[in-house]
Amino acid sequence: MRTLLILALMAAPCFAQDAPADTPATREDVLQLFNVMQVNQQMRAIIDSMMKQQKDLVHETARRKNPNVTQQELERFDRMMDETVKDIPLEGLLDDMVPVYQKHLSKVDVAAMSSFYSSPTGQKLLREMPAMTSEAMQAAFGRLQKQMETMQDRIDKAMQESEGHKPAPKAPSKPQPRPVPESLKN
Length: 186
What we know:
Blueprint: H1 2-17, H2 27-37, H3 39-65, H4 71-86, H5 90-104, H6 107-118, H7 120-162
């Protein structure tokens, strides 16, 4: 069965080249691409990574708001989040994505992508992408955090002004770096 799938993937670009360049990709073409790209597994990995980050953020926020929060309470929050995530319908999400791919990619495009992602280089890219994404997010975290703090300061100032309060002058201080959430550390 696996051999037939490999042969079909290798032959797909040949058949697709016979189609005019603007022939829309079929639902089956897109689902085949999703299979080659391991989109289902990648989405699960992304969701798991996002949940790890969210849990770290919830823990940090809970500790900041209530320094006496217990480990049991944090674990209860984690269980609540896990319950919510387990109900995410990945197959439904993939079904929702198919028309988007069909709108933007032709049959030839999808066949070429399937061919690339079936190649050793494409498979390596798929294997390495989660680590590359995680490392890129970690590298950008400080810069993004600074921007978020600047935005929050602007919002606070605007809210004070709209309430008729003049913002109190800030004492010059050296900004304290915030810790990097555990989910972004390697």
